[in-house]
Amino acid sequence: MKTSGTHLWLILWKAYDTLRTHAERHIESLGLCLSDFGVLEALLHKGPLPVNTIGSLIRLTSGSITAAVDRLERKGLVERRNDAGDRRARVVHLTASGRSLISCAFADHETAMERAVSGLTAAERAEAATLLKKLGLSAQAMLQ
Fold first, then answer.
1. Tens digits of per-residue pLDDT, 99-128?
2. If we measure between CA atoms, which residue out of 39, 56, 35 comes closest to residue 92?
3. pLDDT the model gives residue 87
4. Rounded Cα gap, residues 36 and 42, in angstroms
5. How far apart are CA 72 and CA 64, in angstroms?
6. Which one of 67, 112, 132, 141 counts the least CB within 10 Å of its CB?
7. What is the sign of the dihedral through the CA atoms of 69, 72, 76 and 77?
């Protein structure tokens, strides 16, 4: 069976859309929006980061990432601190309550996403991950 590039793109699009819907529904059930969850998750796993770095990691525009960090700061979940190495820069840190919230929320989210991808065996997931990385890198190289 031959699968065209267009057909593969449509399959990927539909699968992504469905998995994103699972993720968004679960994240909203935790009382967070997707961008706030993304900021908190990035800080949990990467440590303190400049605002623009967080924006790049979670694919938010400059204005959107600033709004998300402002919102999280008002809730007491993150704080901006001066960068010791660069007086012009500000770095975003999780507060104790932010770390507690995202640690629990992320663990719960992992479980929800495991359920969402349970249609594939562990071996099939590993194969899919390998093939999707290969596809993404190949397509990315053509953009340059």
1. 999 999 999 999 999 999 999 999 999 999
2. 39
3. 79
4. 10
5. 12
6. 141
7. negative
Instruction: State the distance between the two ends of the chain, measured CA to CA, in whole angstroms.
Output: 31
Instruction: Indicate the pTM of the whole model.
Output: 0.84
Q: 45 is written with which tokens?
A: 């796993």
Q: Residues 63-74: what's their mean pLDDT? A: 95
**Quick one: which H or E segment has residue 79?**
strand 78-83
Quickly list DSSP for 96-108: HHHHHHHHHHHHH
Q: Which of 102, 107, 105, 135 is nearest to 16 (CA)?
A: 135
**CA angle (106 as vertex; 95, 12 as ends), nearest 5:** 130
Residue-range definition of the domain harbouring residue 20: 5-143
- The domain that holds 81 is classified in CATH as 1.10.10.10
Which three-class secondary structure state does DSSP give residue 78?
strand
pLDDT digits (tens, 9 = 90+) for 5-36: 999 999 999 999 999 999 999 999 988 999 99
1, pLDDT greater than 80: no
Q: Report pLDDT for 86.
A: 81
Count of structural domains, the chain: 1
Instruction: Please tell me the distance from the alpha carbon of residue 79 to that of residue 73, in angstroms, as a whole number.
Output: 6
